[in-house]
Structures are given as C-alpha cells and as structure tokens.
Amino acid sequence: MNMDLKNLTIKKAHKSLSEGEFTCRELAEAYLKVIQEKNPEINAYLEIFDDVLLQAEGAQKKFSDGTATVLTGIPIAIKDNILFQGHTSSSGSKILENYTATYDATVIKKLKSAGAVIIGRTNMDEFAMGVSTENSAYGVTKNPHDITRVPGGSSGGSTACVAMDGALVALGSDTGGSCRQPASFCGVVGLKPTYGSVSRYGLTAMGSSLDVIGAIGKNISDVKIVFDFIVGVDEMDSTSIPLKFYEKKVVSKPVIGIPRDFIVEGVDPRVIANFEETVEKLKFAGYVVKDIKLSYVKYAVPAYYVVTPAEISANMARFDGMRYGSSSKSENLREVYIKSRGKGFGKEVRRRILLGTYVLSHGYHDAYYNKANTVRRLIINDYNKAFEQVDLVLTPTTTGPAFKIGEKVDDPVKCYLEDIFTGPANMAGIPAISIPSGFVEEEGKKLPLGVQFLAQHGREDLLFEVGSKFEALQRSVI
Ligand code: GLN
C-alpha cells in the first residue's frame, strides 16, 4: 500500500484507521519501509523495536473493541533516554550500552494505554549534552535536508526521524533547547513544555531542575495531541505540577513581545531577516507586536553552564560500573569506578562532570553555583515582568541554519552558544515551541529555519493557538 507519509497527520491517520482505509499494521509497515531505506544513512534510530508489529496488532484490537484513542496505532519514536520496559535505553552512551529498562517511564505508560505504536529509540548526544548528536557514542545523525550537516541536538535522532518520515511523531527531552534547536534545523515543530507539567519519571536525568520531556512533530496539531496525552501530575515525580491555566484562561488577541536587544549579537543576518519577516506576517495577521526588555536573559547561557554541570555531576554519579550498565573488572572498587567511568563516558560528559564538581566545591560554591542561581532568579523575574505586558515572547530559535558535521565539535564554547535563544526558557521553567519559519539556500540545499514562541508557565495553549495561526500564514504565503 502506498501512503502519502509526507502529508500524513495524526488526525488524518486516525480517520483512515477508524474507517478501515488501512490497518495499524499497514501503517507501521509503511514507516518501517522508509526506515529501512533511509536510516542506514541518516542514523536517526539506534534501534527498531522487535515488537512493533505486535504493538500494531494490539492497537488494531482497540479499534475493533471500541477503545481506540486518537493516538491508537500512531507510530511514534522515543529518545534513547526514555525508559521502555524490557528494551535497551542507552542515553547515547557507551556506559549504558547493555542497559535494559526495568520499568516504563510515565510517558511510556501513557502512550501504551493510548495504544500508540512505539517504533524505536532515537539517537542523541550522550546523556542529552550537546547540540548536534555528535556527542553520541553511536555515530552522528545526519540532517535529512542535507546529509553533510547535523540535525541539531540533543534530540537530533527524534527530529531527523520525523523529518525523514521514519515516524509520525517523536518524544524528545529538553534541558536547554534539545527539542527546539533540532526541530528548527530539521524543519519540524518542537515543544518544550512547562517544567513539571510532564512527568520526568523514567527519563534519565541530565539537569533535574530543567529537564522536561517534549514532543516533536510535523505540525502544531500533532504536537498538541501528543502533549495532551503525556501531560499530567504524577506522584512518581515530586516536581510535577498541574497546569492550572491550560486551555482555561481565554486571551482574545494575544500580544507578542520582541526582546530586540538580545537578538542581534552573533546571529546570522539571514536569521534576522527571516525573523523580521515573521514579525511582519504576525502584524499583518492582526497581532499587536511590542518591543520588550529582558535585561538579564543575556546571562542565561553562562548561568546555565554553571547550574546544569552542577546537576549533571550529581546525576552522573550513579553510573559507577557497579549498579548500572557496563563495568570494567578490577582488583579494587576504586579502580572499577575509575575504569568503568573512564571507558564509559565520552569527552563532553566528562567535561561537564569536571565543571560541575568544580562549581560545587568548597570555596567556589558561592562564587559560581550560588551566583548562577541568583541570575536564574533574575531571569525568572524578567519573564514575569514581561508577561505583565505581553502574552507571548518571540525570538529566533537558533543563531543560524544547521551547521556542518564537524564544524563545532571541537569547540565547546561554540556549541554552548547554540543555546542562546533556547536555554532561557529552561532556566525560567516556561514553555516554548519552535515552528518552521522558512528556508535559506546554501550549496543548492534548502536549509530550514525556525522561530520560537515562549509563554508563561502553563500557557502551552497560547503557543498552540498562535503557533497554528502562524503555521497557516506560512502555508498561505508559500
Ligand atoms: N545544548 C544544551 C546542552 O548541551 C541543551 C541540551 C538539552 O536540552 N538536553 O546542555
């Protein structure tokens, strides 16, 4: 059966599955075929689960017994740091190469009960640290728009897999931009939900006070559907919170704020031009657009690279060669730790552990860690003040289009600067979404660009509403 996967959406697939136009098995097989063709080159998936067709049969039963949901039978990919019981979950690291998840993450439980078909696990930067998937222990993922370029990171496998039609939607995680930056590079939509709105139970931790599981899809509607399934308070995650205002507080004409001051420095002029076009389109569509000041947001990246390494160094301590994953045999315990961690962790993870233990060490704690947390508070205040005047904030998602494989890998600071537009939302815990906003042409290839909308805690509904309008505007202009 020939299916138009490029134009398939969750709603369309659900309609066809409900009307018996195709079965869950046929839909899964269509995706498996694409994966077989494209994955050897793109390397979006690290593994295709061997029970995909079994899952599809189970989903089909839900259609026959009347318990199907809109996600039933929908092929979804998961990032390699989300635990799916009985399946390997390596977080892109050598140290967890042979680790089999002993329980389901809450999001997986939710997907399972909705009847989604979980196709496989996707490539990522090791433990989600990076911007390109080049920090994966399992090779780089290539950008489907230009295979000489990175797909972004750390959820680069998830975004590339949606962009190459290897899954209809995917889950990623976002600690400083990992759903949004790769979404922008791959021409898809990436959502970072409000911190705490989606359970982190079963997500291998990177920076626990910033991590959140997000959704990636070709359009806002697909992303919203996935979000609506995975959102919710979970007693297994003590930081999970209810979204009190989600879809409850109507805003008749959302006002959009532009923090111009922080958009100029080091940004590709083509990104600025595309961003200005976006602003014009939104004005044309009747939105009020206002300049705003976010005085401390420019310090988000330096503060982020103190706060996250600190949390990372604590979170990585559990990978000691004794309890999880691979272990190097040795005479004494200390040697086991040193050898296992030395062999198991890649360069970037080691760098962050060193940075983290340094900023937490006696004598430097106040100078670095506490100061960074003060800056974090100021950033939160900045946004709170901004959201008294505007409903949404708009920025570019990235400073440029997807960069070349190898271009930044040896320069950590260049990589860290990739987070300039995305990191602030994580520092503040607010939701943000990246939406495709056009293309630039380079070496005969069309490279996607994206813009990012940010909203107050729990106002994902505003992101979806304005995002859908912007999406429609894009379609009408093209
Ligand atoms: N690029 C950021 C980092 O390396 C963010 C990664 C993420 O969101 N997981 O820390």
Summarize the structure.
This protein is of the alpha/beta class and 478 residues long.
Low-confidence stretches: none
Could you say which structural class the secondary elements and strand pairing correspond to? alpha/beta
Per DSSP, what share of the residues sits in E-state strands of 2 or more residues? 5-15%
- Proportion of helical residues: 25-40%
Provide structural commentary:
This protein has 478 residues and is an alpha/beta fold. Helix content is 40%, strand content 14%. 56% of the residues are buried. Bound molecules: glutamine (GLN). Glutamine is lined by residues 128-131, 154, 173-178, 206, 308, 419.
List the helices and strands and how they pair.
Blueprint: H1 10-18, H2 24-42, E1 45-48, H3 52-64, E2 75-79, H4 106-114, E3 117-122, H5 156-163, E4 169-174, H6 180-186, E5 189-192, E6 212-217, H7 220-230, E7 255-258, H8 269-284, E8 288-291, H9 300-315, H10 333-344, H11 347-360, H12 365-389, E9 392-396, H13 412-417, H14 423-428, E10 432-442, E11 445-455, H15 460-477
Parallel strand pairs: 2-3, 2-4, 7-8, 7-9
Antiparallel strand pairs: 1-3, 4-6, 5-6, 5-10, 9-11, 10-11
The structure holds glutamine.
Glutamine binds at residues 128-131, 154, 173-178, 206, 308, 419.
Question: What keyword list fits this structure?
Answer:
alpha/beta; eleven-stranded mixed beta sheet; 14% strand; binds glutamine
